[in-house]
Write a structure and sequence with these properties.
The structure is a single chain. It contains 23 helices and four strands. By secondary structure, the protein is mostly helical. Strands 1-2 form a two-stranded antiparallel sheet. β1 and β2 form a beta hairpin. α9 crosses α14, α11 packs parallel to α20 and α12 packs antiparallel against α20. It is globular. The N and C termini lie far apart (about 60 Å).
Amino acid sequence: MYMDFIVSLNNYLNGIVWGPIGLFLLFIAGLWMTLLTKGFQVTHFIHWMKQTVGAIFQDKNVTAHTDKEDKAISQFQSLCTALAATIGTGNIVGVSTAIISGGPGAIFWMWVMAILGMMTNYSENVLGIYYRRRNQKGEWSGGAMYYLSEGLGSKKNCKTLGKVLAVVFSAFCGLASFGIGNIAQVNSIASNIQTAFNVPTYITGIAVMILAGLVVLGGLKRVASVTEKLVPFMAIAYVVGALVIVGCNASMIPAALVSIFKGAFGLKAATGGVLGYGLKAAITWGFKRGAFSNEAGLGSSVMVHSSSNVKEPVQQGMWGIFEVFADTIIVCTLTALVVLTSGFFDLSTGLQVVDVQASSVVGQAFGNVFGSIGPKFIAISVLMFAFSTILGWSHYGGKSIEYLFGEKVVKFYHVIFCGMSFFSATMELGLAWDISDTFNGLMMLPNLIGVLALSGTVAKITKNYVDRTFNKADIKPMYSAYEDIQLEQEKSE
């Protein structure tokens, strides 16, 4: 009876946040920020690539660690911690779920959401740096709750609205950290480890709980130190493995791409058969799984980006663009091609022809090429991806709890968060994903209201940066909304 109520309530809320209103708001936010910034993610593609991944090899300041006394983390650490939270089961299980539930066309809408979401994520990070503050420990605290309360709240007749939305966002983010950041991740780890190595789920739950506790309870510095080592290794290993699979099935790539584009608009296949999924399903699942994967629009990763030692809002905004690009355009696309060229789908109809669960379809596809090693490789990949996501989301949830209840409660939250891993390992996968989707949507709504309300501020900051960088204009930089923080930053240089 109790579980039936939970499922019914979750389905009701899920239908609201991921219905036409939620999807429209997500789409409009990305489109509007793209138009306001004159397509910055496209027109300045080479520039932001040089300033992000290119700078890792050219600018030591990007990867240099801060002093022990400095509570900030490096730009590279902030990216890795953000990618740790975004590159997770959504890139493997999530993509498979999108294709099975929404058809191959869901991948196209995942791409659309990613391209527009680059500027949503960019805007969140710009606002995060611009409105961040230091807490009593000297740590940077930034995120949607701050630009809602301080940014939106500073507008005429919006003070109360800004503060209320900040509290609502923080509450939903705290809840979401248990969904997307724990339940879905640990559940995927446990099910894959059980399939590949026959390890009971509760054993995996205990192991994850202990390992997460050792890292999370050490604070952001320890989390960042682990993720900057784990993320590059796991991402490169998975990408190389996926490229091998796709290369072996190269002859099927054209048909896979055709099925994606035809399925995106519910068109008839070339053979005359009708694709098994409608336009609504393709868009809905593409947007939902895309949001779960890269988190653009959720207002989550901005909380770790705001902890960076950078003072230029646009610089951190560009890391946000790269984050979405790496997560969805690269990793999710490779996963989609692995799935669609696996032989488990009829590419002329988009229908699944081999009964394989979403949680194991990628492992089975790897098994077709690598034999028994394939599923084990994917199980280990899911373990690393999901574990890194747990670490990233522990920080997001902690910052939300800090905003709501103060810094002293954060340690208590982290203990509960890590302890939740044991129960997450034994939960039903479908329910885990549904709960995660709902919490994602609930925190997305107040965040997108803030981004749209402050879109003019983002446009001004971006124009200020472009004029200074490309037009060599002699104007005052827009680094922070607070003069005391700006002065403190300048003195520390």
